[in-house]
Amino acid sequence: LCALFEQGSEDGNSDNNSVKNGVIVHSELLVDYLKQNYPNLYLVSSTTKVLTDFHEFAEEVKRKEFQYIVPDFRLNKSFDQLNTLTLSGKDKVEFLCNECCYFGCKDRKECYEAVSRRNLGEEPDFSCTSPGAEEGYRFSKAMKNPGFISVEDIQKIYQPMGFSNYKIEGRGLGSALVLEFLLYYMTKPEYQLQVREEIYLDNMLDLF
Prior knowledge:
mainly alpha, two-stranded parallel ribbon
């Protein structure tokens, strides 16, 4: 897959790929491997590192290996500290906007590892004990999270501060939820109903 995605990424302007491709990484071993074998792919420091200490996060931002760094969502509102980053540092920050996880969670690293092991077909001995975990993901609950970044936040706080990269969680949650994310973050309110109608009617979706 890396070889495939690296094709056309040398200058980011090939006929088949107008945008340079990258890889989100956690493992330092993988960072070294990708740099050596697929140097035309850019690297993103994953939020699964759970960088909640701002000093550790700021050091990660300084690393030349990474084009983007995704901080833990609990740093999203640390405005005074975030504003100490250089302009080039701010260009590398990619905020996770719509995290639904319990803000006081102490097991986030273990949770990410459990998810990875399940993806590998394993059955890790881990279960989330955070309040409301049994409900699963709810966008309405994410909106009440202290780390939630709204469209208004982006426009009135983050962009004026010099931040321009944002990450939407939930690619595996199902098409209905993904649609709500795209409507909220990428569609002007006055056009959201029209977009819903086009999608529902075009696919002959019968909800009942």
